[in-house]
TrEMBL record:
Family indicated by similarity: Belongs to the cytochrome P450 family.
Native species: Serpula lacrymans var. lacrymans (strain S7.3)
Binding residues annotated for heme, in chain numbering: C1066
Alphabetical list of InterPro entries matching this protein: Cyt_P450, Cyt_P450_CS, Cyt_P450_E_grp-I, Cyt_P450_sf, Cytochrome_P450_monoxygenase
The protein's name: Cytochrome P450
Record keywords: Heme, Iron, Membrane, Metal-binding, Monooxygenase, Oxidoreductase, Signal, Transmembrane, Transmembrane helix
Pfam families: p450 (PF00067)
Obligatory cofactor(s): heme
GO cellular component, one term: membrane
Pathway the protein takes part in: Secondary metabolite biosynthesis; terpenoid biosynthesis
Gene Ontology terms, MF aspect: heme binding; iron ion binding; monooxygenase activity; oxidoreductase activity, acting on paired donors, with incorporation or reduction of molecular oxygen
Keyword field contains Membrane: yes
CDD domains according to UniProt: CYP56-like (cd11070)
Length: 1131
């Protein structure tokens, strides 16, 4: 076969040849494109501005113009080239010729020559998801739409816009802002977006919306009209880039999809309501006017009325054009007035001169309020609200294999349907002919035109007065121009004039005084406040415009009544999450405003999905995903204010991150917290560090090894709750105290805590002594030396038997119990043992897979059997006439559930909750104690001097060699100290997770002893680094040295958290300490413990032996890898 001869060298040559040919073709096409426009000066870049990757690259000369080229350059590129038409030619992925135009006469010629320079409809097809409309059409179809749509924009509608705007503003002033002389808005759009939404709701749809919540959802709907309208208008970018099948991927997308469906349903209902009504009520909102025009319009014989989908499609376009654009323009207007108080004072005096009696302005006053309109127009000139196209629509529909563009222009696009020429003047005033090849993309550079000094004197200066005299109408196109000029221009101007008039009439607008910016100059403040963003927005938008509406300028009306308005607080956190507080539910917006992913939709069945298309699609999606990951990663780092720490590709929460070993910059490995202990904190000089991973999602984790900060976190439950989703896997027997928060946790704690009584602790001691004596006198009878290949093979059964007796009231001996009770397939002892040693299998193996092997089948059976035993124990107690008093945990829990006093709204624990909680005791009380005991025995074997010290103390407490009792425990301090020192050095859990539900700051000392403020962004994972804390030399002298004596004097209780701390501290702490003290006391009383001497390790040093014996790995808890021990009976 031919393929057999394709070795690696041949393959590389083949791939290299293909790459060279592709490069040569790209270069040839690039040079040909330049020649086709006769070398017209302009930009020459490698990457097309329509390529997805350009959205994520900064401007790099010769490589990329960046995302916002038109806006960033404004008129500077034209001034540099000396011509008001420049070219923009890119080489890859497809050679693309585009002309940027900032000449008013050329733009006028183009817009009035529709057949020669049509609209590129493919860029607007995404706006047809509700139906065809006037924006996404051309030719006869556009004429048909325009004929019916235009009459809806009447003077009666404009009056309605004015009246409704005044009503909305008065509602804001008199009901929402009442009683406040100063109102602070952290970001202006959080005020202007609702205003614009409410205006379009009333004047556009005939649905009045108030600032107070309307919570009634009509029958047949799942969302109010207001909520659906709000979500649609604030999530248009998501709708444009997300295929319909992806809306179920998360709750936010699901809610966005629901909002679009609900709004469409509301609009269709409004259409049907009008059609079915016998008497057509005359209303002047756009939607009803459009319906009336569609019914009444005289059509030619070959014309048809608009279908319902077309009616809905057109009203939706009004929504898009009338909401976000006006809101952002108003925000910029207010910012400019705040920055230029002289202009604001001029406007105020003008309004006062028109309305000397302080009355409410009417629509008839609008022609006189020309200064308000001039401010609005000057803002539109400086910040033109032209639609920005976020992603290539061909790629998303998979209908083309040659274009995977990502349009992002603050310009108006056209196409040249044939070769054309334009005559323009150069900088010297000479006429120059510009050649325009057929199919060239023409972009009306709106910022370039609006900042062109040929038409606007001092174009970078805010001068509203320029719109009061003569000015060049052709050089002002925020609403486009020509035949395709926006039919809703007057709607927007009316709303803008009314809002500015009413706000300035009542309030002085200032920029919020923020402490961190007090040293900045005016130009720096102006640059900051007027900084714009285009990402995740359909129009040019301000990034962060903080306002203060100062004491009212106008304090009374003609009736002498004082006007009082209430503060509306908007919680806005730049670069993280915005919470818009106007609505019933907070609408959370992810970093940068959207969590949208550029995902492909299904292929067009007519085009087919060939290999080239598939590879380009996959490559585009991969590049986009990589860019998004990188941006989120960098944003996460910035959000912590560059707190030092780990930076890795793989998150430690992923399966891959746990499988890959620790590789710097790639992965922390499975046991990052344990492996680093305190070393990473020492390296960074701070006891709080960040751990930020890029993939699969940017994840901010804050590792904390500062005792004071941990104390603050654990005692602030509402601010730093437990991330319950990380614990949901241990609810398979029922809800429990570990996997709960808030009122549910309080309910569990109220019933569970009494079970851990002193009587239970005495039972733990007595049962532990019984089990140990059974081991010594029967299992180890007659043996002076016992070898254990791995210590946990001894400590696991001990802990199992203790939890069986003191936890479940079932005494288990070292001798095998072969009798299986009727109705069971496994003894209680076997089921308990199998469950406790196979928890990991239960967590990761689905139930249907248990029949795949005998081991899995036995594990599944053990869990079923243990659950059956526990239910039988519950029923036995419930059915018993006389309740025997027993002090094991399970029976104490059952008794507490029967006896506890509950409030009227509380209920007792169900059977599944009782079992769920006792199972948690099993998990916490078995494996953790067993592993800690194994580590304790290993430490005593490695440090015989410490073992001798504890032995001598036991002899001093028990000189006659009698069995220790529970009453002796307080004097057996060395045994508990050894157990605690082991828990310090080998904490069962190396990290305790919390979540920061709000932005927080902590003050911690650095290595030099200076206080440092650490910022923790909302949503960060707070890892209480138990290992880092327990090895922190600030709290523990020589932390790597085994020194039990440190627990006999004064020691920092806040720096020791093996049982967690605060409200969520382990209720079973005393149970574990009692068992550990008893086991260690009895072992050291009877035996000398040594490390097993193995031939292969005889040449190792003490440090090597120590590292081998104490090697640990993380499972559910930290576990020793292999601890070979020898027990030699004391004489």
């Amino acid at each position: 076969m031919l393929i057999s001869g394709l070795n690696l060298q041949t393959l590389l040559i083949l791939l290299g040849s293909v790459a060279l040919l592709r490069t040569a073709k790209v270069y040839t096409n690039f040079r040909r494109a330049i020649r086709s426009i006769r070398n017209l000066p302009g930009h020459r870049t490698f990457l097309s501005s329509s390529a997805i990757i350009v959205n994520f690259l900064p401007p790099i000369r010769g490589i990329s113009l960046g995302r916002d080229g038109l806006w960033n350059f404004k008129h500077s590129i034209f001034a540099e080239k000396g011509l008001d038409i420049v070219s923009n030619i890119a080489a890859w992925p497809k050679t693309r010729v585009s002309l940027w135009i900032a000449d008013a006469d050329v733009i006028k010629e183009i817009v009035w020559s529709r057949s020669l320079f049509p609209k590129p409809l493919q860029q607007y097809k995404v706006l047809t998801f509700f139906g065809g409309n006037v924006v996404s059409s051309e030719g006869d179809e556009w004429k048909r739409y325009r004929k019916i749509v235009a009459p809806a924009f009447t003077d009666r509608n404009n009056k309605l816009v004015w009246d409704e705007t005044c009503r909305i503003m008065l509602d804001l002033f008199n009901n929402v802002w009442t009683g406040k002389d100063e109102v602070t808005i952290d970001h202006g759009v959080d005020l202007t977006l609702p205003i614009a939404l409410f205006v379009i709701g009333a004047a556009g749809f005939g649905r009045r919306i108030s600032w107070q919540e309307d919570a009634i959802i009509p029958p047949g709907h799942k969302m109010t009209f207001r909520d659906s309208l709000h979500i649609v208008t604030t999530n248009l970018a998501i709708k444009l880039v997300t295929p319909k099948w992806a809306y179920g991927l998360n709750k936010r997308l699901e809610r966005v999809g629901l909002a679009f469906d609900e709004l469409e349903r509301y609009l269709y209902e409004m259409i049907q309501s009008r059609k079915s009504g016998e008497i057509k009520e005359e209303r002047h909102d756009l939607f009803n006017s459009l319906l009336a025009a569609n019914d009444d319009m005289d059509l030619n014989t070959d014309e048809v009325r608009l279908a319902d989908s077309e009616l809905v499609g057109n009203i939706f376009i009004f929504l898009v054009a009338g909401h976000e654009t006006t809101a952002h323009s108003l925000c910029f207007s207010l910012a400019m007035l705040a920055l230029y108080p002289d202009e604001q004072e001029i406007l105020y005096n003008h309004v006062k001169s028109v309305l000397p009696d302080g009355r409410m302005p009417t629509y008839e006053d609008m022609p006189q309020l020309n200064r308000s309109l001039a401010v609005f127009n000057e803002t539109l000139r400086m910040f033109p609200p032209v639609l920005i196209f976020l992603v290539s629509f061909e790629v998303l529909s998979l209908t083309r294999s040659t274009n995977y563009s990502s349009f992002q222009v603050t310009g108006i696009p056209k196409n040249s349907a044939e070769d054309a020429t334009f005559v323009v003047r150069n900088a010297a005033g000479e006429n120059t002919t510009v050649a325009v090849p057929k199919d060239t993309k023409l972009t009306f550079d709106v910022p370039g035109l609006h900042y062109n000094p040929r038409y606007w004197e001092d174009p970078h200066t805010f001068k509203p007065s320029r719109f009061l005299g003569d000015w060049n109408r052709d050089a002002f196109i925020p609403f486009s121009a020509g035949h395709r000029g926006c039919v809703g221009r007057k709607f927007s101007e009316t709303e803008g004039t009314a809002v500015l008039t009413l706000l300035i009439m009542q309030y002085k607008v200032e920029i919020q005084d923020e402490r961190q910016f007090r040293s900045e100059t005016f130009e720096q403040k102006k640059a900051r406040v007027l900084d714009v963003r285009t990402r995740n927005s359909l129009t040019l938008a301000g990034k962060d415009v903080p306002f203060v509406f100062a004491s009212p300028m106008w304090t009374s009306n003609t009736d002498g009544r004082i006007i009082r308005w209430q503060l509306l607080y908007i919680d806005y956190k730049p670069d993280h999450k915005q919470t818009i507080c106007f609505f019933r539910e907070s609408v959370k917006i992810g970093v940068g405003g959207t969590d949208a992913r550029y995902l492909p939709t299904g292929p067009d069945p007519e085009d087919g999905l060939n290999l080239q298309t598939l590879l380009k699609l996959l490559g585009s999606v991969a590049l986009l995903r990589a860019a998004q990951v990188y941006i989120d990663f960098r944003r996460a780092i910035r959000s912590t204010k560059y707190l030092p720490g780990h930076r890795t590709l793989l998150s430690s929460t992923t399966i891959l991150g746990n499988l890959v070993p620790a590789i710097r910059g790639i992965s922390l490995g499975r046991d990052g917290l344990w492996n680093f202990k305190h070393s990473i904190f020492a390296e960074k000089g701070l006891d709080i560090i960040s751990s930020i991973a890029a993939w699969p999602i940017s994840r901010i984790s804050i590792w904390v090894a500062d005792a004071e900060v941990i104390k603050e976190i654990v005692w602030s439950r509402s601010r730093f709750p437990k991330p319950l989703h990380q614990y949901s896997f241990i609810t398979f027997f029922g809800g429990n105290i570990v996997v709960s928060e808030g009122d549910e946790w309080k309910r569990y704690r109220k019933i569970v805590a009494p079970a851990f009584s002193d009587r239970n602790n005495k039972l733990v001691w007595d049962e532990t002594c019984r089990i140990m004596l059974d081991l010594f006198d029967h299992a180890w009878a007659g043996k002076d030396e016992i070898t254990i290949d791995h210590g946990v093979d001894l400590t696991l059964p001990i802990a199992l038997f203790v939890i069986g007796a003191a936890g479940f009231g079932r005494s288990i001996s070292w001798q095998e119990d072969e009798i299986i009770p009727p109705g069971h397939k496994m003894t209680f002892k076997d089921s308990l043992h199998t469950v406790t040693t196979n928890l990991i299998i239960k967590l990761v193996v689905p139930k249907w897979a248990y029949g795949l092997s005998k081991r899995l089948e036995r594990v599944g059976l053990a869990f079923d059997e243990l659950e059956r035993y526990l239910y039988e124990m519950i029923q036995s107690r419930k059915n018993g006439e006389a309740k025997e008093e027993r002090h094991d945990l399970f029976n104490s829990l059952l008794a507490a559930n029967d006896d506890v006093d509950l409030t009227s709204d509380e209920v007792r624990l169900s059977d599944s909750e009782l079992i769920g909680n006792i199972f948690i005791f099993l998990v916490a009380g078995h494996e953790t104690t067993a592993h800690s005991l194994c580590f304790s025995l290993a430490m005593l074997a490695l440090y015989p001097d410490e073992q001798e010290i504890i032995y001598n103390q036991i002899r001093s407490v028990l000189p006659d060699g009698r069995m220790p009792t529970y009453e002796d425990m307080p004097r057996l301090t060395r045994s508990l100290a050894v157990f605690n020192e082991t828990l310090r050095m080998f904490p069962p859990v190396t990290g305790i997770p919390k979540t920061s539900v709000e932005d927080a700051t902590f003050v911690v000392p650095n290595a030099a002893g200076e206080n440092t403020t650490v910022t923790v962004p909302q949503g960060s994972v707070m890892d209480l680094d138990v290992a880092g804390l327990h090895y922190n030399p600030r709290y523990w002298e020589e932390p790597h040295t085994f020194k039990p004596s440190r627990f006999l004097g004064d020691w920092n209780r806040d720096a020791f958290i093996p049982f967690s701390a605060g409200y969520r501290g382990c209720v079973g702490r005393k149970f574990s300490e009692t068992e550990g003290t008893a086991v260690l006391t009895l072992f050291v009383m009877q035996f000398k413990i040594e490390i097993k001497d193995e031939p292969q390790f005889r040449s190792e040093t003490f440090e090597q032996k120590k590292a081998r014996v104490l090697d640990a790995k993380s499972g559910i808890t930290l576990a020793p890898t292999r601890t070979p021990l020898v027990f030699k009976r004391r004489k």
